[in-house]
Design a protein that fits this description.
Oligomer: single chain
Radius of gyration: 29 Å
Shape: elongated
Number of strands: 10
Helix content: 40-55%
Length: 481
């Protein structure tokens, strides 16, 4: 929340902000970047009272926010992400331009409506770069403002583009996406007792600093709302910005970046917090809650093993993203394991032995399920026992030269797991134990608590195929060591 304060009391500062919700937290982070870069003063006061509220406050001079300097900061902050800056840098870097460069320059000159308007009466010939540079300089503020507010991954991703740098009035609807309403059309439905004079309006020009607080890619960004301490809030998000800018060209998804951050020794997150997520294709923000229990699991995940993108019908399933969501919510990854077991089954039907990627993913997901559900060593030992039983069954079937029968049992077990038909699962296991003559010790735990111990059956099914028999044996021996 923003407060007007007495400059005589607060070292000449006339405005204070507290991190009352994530919008103000993000505004504080973005505003601090701006004030720091533009050489302005600010101060963080801890545990003070303003307007009968005890909190940490970010203090600054309101007159230090000007449109001209804001636009200068936008250009500095985003650099060549703004088409005119990329164009300007290219023109300044060379005296002559080959055909492909001329084509690129022409494309940049028409990259958005503002640039098309500025260059409407001029055409780049390869020899008139000074004319182009002069037009950029003369129209710089207009170009920055229009480019920034309308670009889908910049201001327009976070706020209503039409209100950039406008002061909020007492009845201004919040400019932040997902908080904005059309008061004329929906005002009554948003008001108490359908009276429009009861609508609570909350808008502020400081929300124009929110975009600078988010980090990520052109399509997905996040803000870490660690608002317990304002100094840590600013430092953490700045460190994330520096860290992720180095990896920008790799185009790694946000979820992987966050998982690597959680495993980083330099920037390790050690406690839970709120993470605000923005997908460019959506008109609202999502709140993710990072729990301490989730952090412990994330820190042990082998990220490379779950880096899979699998086709399902006309769409793709990103296994890493699915797993990330499950760990965040501390919910089991059963459905993902079932999907991969079925995909593996399809590969086996096609006689394709190379199932290494899927096998590694399933192994890791079983471990993740174990940590989410149990967190102890007992389950890990029983999973090894279930795998050993599967290996013995395969061995018996190979002796009798009836490996094809395994396919039927395996497919039935997968189906029963998918539909959580625990009675059917138990029946199939009993039939298979009798048929093979192998005793399934792990079944007793499954009988005792099927929903808690169904990963034992998944682990058993996972290793129940003759095509990987030799490889399985070697892997199991390594694990035992």
């Amino acid at each position: 929340m923003k407060h007007s304060i007495d400059p005589k009391i607060y070292s000449d500062f006339d405005t204070a902000i507290s991190a009352s919700d994530w919008r103000y937290s993000a505004a504080i982070v973005g505003l601090q970047y701006y004030l720091e870069k533009m050489g302005k003063k600010y101060k963080i006061e801890k545990n003070i009272e303003i307007d009968k509220i005890f909190d940490d406050f970010f203090l600054y001079h309101s007159q230090d926010i000007t449109e001209k300097e804001y636009l200068q900061f936008v250009e500095i902050f985003y650099g060549e992400e703004l088409a005119h800056k990329a164009l300007e840098n290219k023109l300044k870097s060379k005296f002559t331009f080959h055909e492909e460069e001329v084509k690129w320059i022409k494309e940049k000159m028409g990259a958005n409506t503002a640039l098309k308007k500025v260059f409407s009466k001029v055409k780049f010939t390869g020899e008139n770069k000074q004319e182009i540079l002069k037009l950029i300089q003369e129209n710089r503020d207009l170009i920055i403002k229009e480019s920034f507010r309308n670009k889908k991954n910049l201001y327009d991703n976070y706020c209503q583009s039409g209100v950039l740098l406008t002061e909020a009035s007492k009845d201004s609807v919040c400019r932040v996406k997902g908080y904005y309403i059309d008061a004329g059309k929906k005002g009554k439905s948003m008001a108490y007792n359908f009276k429009t004079d009861t609508i609570v309006y909350e808008d502020d020009i400081i929300f124009d600093f929110i975009p600078f607080a988010f980090n990520g890619s052109s399509f997905e960004t996040v803000f870490l709302n660690d608002n317990v301490d304002l100094e840590l809030l600013i430092k953490m998000n700045y460190n994330v910005q520096v860290l992720w800018k180095r990896k920008e060209e790799e185009r790694i998804e946000i979820q992987r970046n966050l998982m690597e951050l959680l495993q980083s020794k330099t920037h390790q997150l050690k406690y839970g917090m709120e993470i605000i997520y923005k997908d460019r294709e959506k008109t609202h923000f999502d709140s993710w809650y990072l729990r301490n229990e989730s952090i412990e699991i994330f820190q042990k995940v082998n990220i490379s093993k779950i880096q899979l993108n699998m086709k399902e019908g006309e769409n793709y399933r990103n296994i890493l993203k699915e797993t990330f969501k499950n760990i965040m919510n501390l919910s089991r990854v059963d459905d993902t394991i079932h999907f991969l077991l079925k995909e593996k089954e399809n590969l086996l039907k096609e006689k394709r032995i190379n199932t290494i990627g899927i096998n590694l993913a399933i192994e890791e997901l079983l471990e993740i399920n174990n940590r989410i559900k149990n967190g102890g060593e007992k389950m890990t030992g029983n999973i090894k026992a279930a795998k050993a039983c599967a290996r013995e069954v395969v061995k018996e079937f190979k002796k009798k030269n009836i490996e094809k029968k395994l396919d039927s049992y395996r497919q039935k077990l997968i189906s029963s797991l998918v539909f959580r038909d625990y009675k059917g699962t138990l029946d199939i296991l009993m039939q298979l134990s009798n048929y093979s003559g192998v005793s399934f010790g792990f079944v007793f735990d499954f009988i005792e608590n099927p929903s808690q111990n169904d990963d034992l059956v998944r682990a058993f099914v996972f290793k129940l195929n003759s095509m990987e028999y030799e490889q399985n044996g070697k892997e199991e021996k390594k694990e035992d060591k």
